Amino acid sequence: MELLPENQQEFFRSKAAAIAHPRELVIDALRAVQSHHGWVPDEGVTLVAALLGILPIEVEEVATFYDKIFRRPVGKRVIHVCDSICCWTREGEAIFTYLQEKLGIAPGETTTDGVFTLLPTCCLGACGDAPAMMIGLTTYGPLTPQRIDEILAQVRAEVSA
Amino acid sequence: MPTLTIDNQPVTVAEGTTIIQAAERLGLVIPHFCYHEALGAAGSCRLCAVRIEKGPLKGIQMACMIPAQDGMVVTTLDPEAVEFRAHVAEWAMTDHPHDCPVCDEGGECQLQEMTIAAGHGTRRFRGLKRTYPNQDLGPFIVQEMNRCIQCYRCVRTYRDYCGGTDYGTFGSRNRVAYGRVTAGRLASPFSGNIIDLCPTGVLTDKTFRFKCRSWDLQEAPSVCPHCSLGCNTLPGARYRELLRVKARVNRAVNGFFICDRGRFGHGYQNHPQRLREPHVDGESVSWNDALAAVHERISQTTEHHGHGTVAFLGSRRATLEANLLLGQWAAATGCTRTVYECHPEFDRIARTVAARLGDQRRSPGDIQRSDFILLIGAEPLAEAPVLALAIRQAKRNGARIVILDPRPPQLPCAFEHLPLTPEQLQLALEQLATKKFKGWTRDESTTLRNLGKDLTAAQNPVIIGAGALLGAAGIERLFDLVDASSPAARPCGVLVPLAGPNSYAAGLLSNGGPDFDDLLDAILNGMVKTLVCLETDPFEDYPQHGRAQSALAQLESLIVLDALPTQTTRHADIVLPTTVPVESDGCYINHEGRLQAFAKVLDPGLSVAVTGGGDHPPRIFEQSAPGNLPRPAWAILAEILKLPTETAALRQQLARTDNRFAALTQIHRAAEGEIVTAIGIPPRPQDDDGAVESSVPGSLQLWPIDTFGGADIFSTYSVHLDPLRDEPYILLADEDAKQRGLTDGAGAVLTSELGHLKVRVRCTATIPAGIAFLPHLLRGATAGFVPGGGALSCTLKSVEGEA
Ligand code: SF4
Ligand code: SF4
Ligand code: FES
What we know:
The structure holds two protein chains of two kinds.
Chain A (H helix, E strand, L loop, with lengths): L5 H13 L7 H12 L4 H11 L3 H10 L11 E6 L2 H5 L2 H12 L12 E6 L11 E3 L2 E3 L4 H16 L1
Parallel strand pairs in A: 1-2
Antiparallel strand pairs in A: 1-3, 3-4
Helix pairs in contact in A: 2-3, 3-4
Chain B lengths: L2 E4 L2 E4 L6 H7 L23 E6 L4 E4 L10 E3 L3 H14 L17 H8 L23 E3 L9 H9 L6 E3 L6 E3 L13 H5 L5 E3 L12 E2 L2 E2 L8 E7 L2 E7 L12 H5 L14 E2 L2 E2 L2 H19 L4 E4 L6 H13 L5 E2 L4 H13 L7 H4 L4 E5 L3 H4 L1 H12 L3 E5 L11 E3 L3 H13 L7 H16 L3 E5 L1 H18 L8 E3 L7 H7 L6 H9 L5 E5 L3 H4 L3 H8 L4 E6 L4 H5 L2 E4 L8 E4 L4 E5 L9 H4 L21 H8 L6 H11 L16 E2 L24 E6 L7 H4 L12 E5 H6 L7 E6 L2 E10 L6 E5 L16 E7 L5
Parallel strand pairs in B: 1-5, 16-17, 16-23, 18-19, 18-21, 19-20, 21-22, 23-24, 24-25, 29-33, 30-32
Antiparallel strand pairs in B: 1-2, 3-4, 3-5, 6-9, 7-8, 10-12, 11-12, 12-13, 14-15, 14-25, 26-27, 27-28, 29-34, 30-33, 31-32, 31-34
Helix pairs in contact in B: 8-22, 9-15, 9-16, 13-15, 17-19
Bound molecules: iron/sulfur cluster (SF4) (2 copies) and FE2/S2 (inorganic) cluster.
């Protein structure tokens, strides 16, 4: 599978050439690879390094720093469940357990149909909507088991559409 | 110069000194992990907490981050600071596997020391520990990531200090780990320094893994024998085997660092082919018989052929003591042909350096403070690796680095590079001195003219050049340029890496005497019948092997003192086995004239690993160890001369006989060595025959050069360094390769006066056309191509069907 379309590669190449510190673009380039390819394989790291003219290690340092850059295969949608304090005070743990049971997977795993990967995350900034989770770039909350059922069904439908 | 008070003691320090450094001046060690003198402060471990009672930032502060200020009052004993440090240590230890009993760092571990110093002794944390998979970092370094305390010293050492590009920090929060993007050998030639700098057992020496507990090691201050820099080392041995080498601090020379050649190139000491017994005519004999035979051959030669028919050859890797004694012995036999270096061009260079260096000498420590470094025909990474590290520090301090060299430079830092041919280097040296530029393209002359101006304008310039490409004539020109660039107010520095660890001494001792070419002539004319070789291999190290062979074959007797087999010991009539540097006391004089002493680490002998074949050693009880016959060359010579064979007394004698080396008597106490200020006698003027005969059309000008892994005999006898030695390759310009239908990585056959040689092609755009380079590997396939003998003409053809 292609890592990044040629026009996007060209975009990063020329932008990197035009700025003083091409390292600024590492996150953008990694996210571009991730949204196109689903996750960032080793070749994605070397590609970004080559596009920006920096060392592979400099890319890998950033890629591994952020838990929302995926260096291993993930499902079509990644569910991030908040495990920080506000959600915890509002039954966040129970919500996380419910999700694990519902999907039949442990944190870090992907459902057998390849749709969902379940991960904990630190605060999503959605404390007002605690307990909260994020799927893709959409935040959901306050969550209840029933609400979770609805959301999962809806996202599954979107994915298979 | 602020004066502050730490724990009620006043101390005055230089501006910019931090509290932790000021405390160190008082002998107070504030617990720390991430701070290191050479790396500076990172403020990342939070262990160095102290209380500032009086000063701009009151309260608990990190001692490594706060500059000392006048009137500041600091206490390290404040209960809150003490508790803070105890918590930080406890926290650092929460995930630690507590596996000290199986950790090679144990016993010399800063984590152990600082944890105790910080007051943490009992584990309270009962939770699960975070664990990591380890990464294979190649043959030199083992990683045990679980022991990490995230101090970032390894990355700061590897990337920032040494300029490595393949090691970094991964993850975040409590998942931070260190390593390469993919498993594999760390590519930096200075990789081993992370072993010394990591304060824990994460990064340890793989060549030393599980061999010995650190407290069981025999250790003694030593000097690296692998090049002319003379980095200070701390070798460790046990059971008659040299097991590892660590860096030893010498701020003037190597700071806290050594290169991987110096660190992992220790296998020569326990090499199975070590010469262990005296031999006469191929028969193993006792020392008494061997020395009697030496005496007999020498007196026979003198009786039959007259005085002066015995000649003596000293060496760049024998100790100063041994070389001096060789001279005394030669004088006693009436010899007028004592030579101290068998490579005439390197001999001339050493003599030039010993005669002209003077106050313009620069050490790697000085280089770091330079603001303008001009490298002409030098490849530090091969010729004096730690010099490359010093140049990098200068660059980090803002220096400008300019390289004139036909080879693609390997420096671990940014530089400006002008690829000139070796002939153009000579021209550039000459014209930068005279400031009259002729024979260049317009661009080139502008560049050179500006370079000349910048050299004059620099505050603290240094010029670095080496013999392999420049030759003796080039080094003369280099000194002329240094003189021309040295107004009285601001002398220009100079650094010339030499051929071996004691080359400078050889240059000084030659005293204007003959060189090895003269000696070979004398042998060929029948004027010399017996040759004594002191730890030198004229068969291999003299550039024209054929000439050396035919001359040395004329000798009636060849007497050789050496520790390892060489072509010369193979041809010898008498072989006297000597110790390697770690097995005796001795002194070397490094490239800048710095006399440095090293002490005996262990006695010679077959290691228990060998006598026991990996099992328990034989249960034989004897006074002496098997294989212990090798003796220090100086002790053998002293015995022959009936002089004291004990170091201190001998050094007294030597210092008295030759007052240039008066420092010998005190040298074992000099922490940074002692500069020998005596001025040597320059070589006789010689026709500049550096030019290469214009050659057959289609041929290339081939320059043998040194490489990181193969420049000295001790390295080539160290198997651990094998991964650093490439199969023979030729380095040439893209267009030259293309013309011959060759591409990068292709196999080719190189044909020269030395016959045919299979090589791999490496090409780049920056090499000037018509020139090629062949890395020399002593005892390897390219052994015949000795650097420093000028260029050869060669042709290159592709090998059909070979990738
Ligand atoms: S590996 Fe060693 S030097 Fe590097 S961060 Fe960990 S403890 Fe510090
Ligand atoms: S630079 Fe030279 S002296 Fe220093 S460690 Fe390396 S080989 Fe030894
Ligand atoms: S030594 Fe000061 S914070 Fe680490």
